[in-house]
Amino acid sequence: MATISQALKDKKFAPRFKIHLTEPQKTAIFFLAPAILIFTVFALWPILKSVRYSLYDWNGIGPLTDYTGLENYQTLLDDPIFLKALKNNGIVVIWSLGTQIPLAIGLALLLTRGLKGSSFFRTLYFAPMVLSEVIVGVIWRWIYQPFFGMANAALVELGLEKQGWLGDEQLVLMCILVVATWRYLGFYIVIFIAAIQGIADELYEAASIDGANAFQRHRYITIPQLIPTIRVAAVLIIVGALKSFDLVWVLTEGGPSHASELVATYMFKEAFRSNNWGYGSTIAFALFLIAFVMAITFIFATRQKKDA
Question: How many separate domains does the chain show?
Answer without folding.
Answer: 1
